[in-house]
Design goal:
This protein is an alpha/beta fold. The chain has 2 domains: 185 residues, Isopropylmalate Dehydrogenase (3-Layer(aba) Sandwich), CATH 3.40.718; 155 residues, Isopropylmalate Dehydrogenase (3-Layer(aba) Sandwich). Helices cover 41% and strands 18% of the residues. It has 12 helices and 12 strands. α1 links the parallel β1 and β2. α1 runs parallel beside α12. The structure holds 3-isopropylmalic acid and magnesium ion.
Length: 353
């Protein structure tokens, strides 16, 4: 029996997860149990905390967790540890999911949906491996304090240990072996000590354990430029938590819409994976029924492949999304007019036996 925990969360999260669930129901996989728990702002409203103990326990007991989205203007004025986003960071940390896989792949039907010229993005297939449980998102000291002068100071700390760098680098090299065999490691080694150590450790891991994989280093600012200049030069991009957050949003737009991109966060072998669309809660369109459910559905596919032991079902789901797009199904973010529901139905209709 495999267990999938759904965390719909906030904003468009519940809307897109409902379509992922419809796809899952249509697959009717044997031996798969699903449950649902409150999370994020919805959990703050219900019980005062973004990650209730019951949700944390259910996540750790599951084989995979599929999250919708967290956050929204309603909770934006709260102190950091009482915000929906804090629940997500606490969940990632509790699950130990240090490697965040964010594939930026262009579906052929969407070649014209990108803001970049078709010949620049055609055939684009990049895999980001973002470090997810360290770096400036979690480093101490942090906070806002008052200096003796009475002026306030905000502090965050970027820190990485050698082992934190090595384990995520190993994931990137291993994944690269199964695709183009090329890793670009992205840092700011020219200005940050943590970046210098990052570069040293990644270089050593490649030399010692992955000599068959090609490795290049790139500065993060330069990588941002190269991603819009010539994105097809990249195969696997390995980077830290903050740069990975920024660059994966940028890459998402190369594929036409942030609403298309799934992610998988993986930890140690045998631990549950955390799956999330990379888009956020999109408060501006929440409740309107027009959000693109593709990222959530594709995140479900990644969960089926990496954590739930159903790789064929994952292939079927990905082909169904491709078929729906090829048949012209488009939510407004892709230039179309159909609803979240209709997009979900088009994907279900595209499922082949
Ligand atoms: C993401 C999101 C999150 C992050 C937020 C919601 C905390 O932007 O998954 O990319 O910054 O990691
Ligand atoms: Mg982000």
């Amino acid at each position: 029996m495999a267990r999938l925990l759904l965390l719909p969360g906030d904003g468009i999260g519940p809307e897109v997860l409902a379509e992922a669930r419809a796809v899952l129901d249509a697959l009717a996989l044997p031996g798969l149990e699903t449950e649902e728990a409150p999370f994020g702002g919805a959990a703050i409203d219900a019980s005062g905390t973004p990650l209730p103990d019951s949700a944390r326990a259910a996540a750790l007991a599951a084989d995979a967790v599929l999250m919708g989205a967290v956050g929204g203007p309603k909770w934006a004025g709260q102190p950091f540890d009482a915000r929906p986003e804090a629940g997500l960071l606490a969940l990632r940390s509790a699950m130990g999911v240090f490697a965040n896989l964010r594939p930026a792949k262009l579906f052929p039907a969407l070649t014209n949906a990108s803001t970049l010229k078709p010949h620049v993005v055609e055939g684009l297939d990049i895999l980001f491996v973002r470090e997810l449980v360290g770096g400036i998102y979690f480093g101490a000291p942090r906070g806002i304090s008052e200096l003796p002068s009475g002026e306030r100071e905000g502090v965050n700390t970027q820190r990485y240990t050698e082992s934190e760098i090595a384990r995520v680098a190993d994931t990137a090299f291993t994944l690269a072996r199964a695709r183009g065999g090329h890793v670009t490691s992205v840092d700011k080694a020219n200005v940050m000590e943590s970046g210098l150590l990052w570069r040293e450790v990644v270089t050593a891991r490649q030399r010692d354990a992955f000599p068959d994989v090609a490795l290049a280093h790139m500065l993060a600012d330069s990588c941002a430029m190269e991603l819009v200049r010539n994105p097809r030069q990249f195969d696997v991009i390995l980077t830290d938590n903050l740069f990975g957050d920024l660059l994966s949003d940028l890459a998402a737009m190369l594929t036409g819409s942030l609403g298309m991109l799934p992610s998988a966060a993986l930890g140690a072998e045998g631990m549950p994976g955390l799956y999330e669309p990379i888009h956020g809660s999109a408060p501006d369109i929440a409740g309107k029924g027009i959000a693109n459910p593709c990222a959530a559905v594709l995140s479900l596919a990644m969960a089926l492949r990496h954590s739930l032991g159903h790789p064929e079902a994952a292939d079927r789901v990905e082909r169904a999304v491709e078929a729906a797009l090829a048949a012209g199904a488009r939510t407004p973010d892709l230039g179309g007019t159909i609803s979240t529901r209709e997009m979900g139905a088009a994907i279900v209709a595209g499922l082949q036996p």
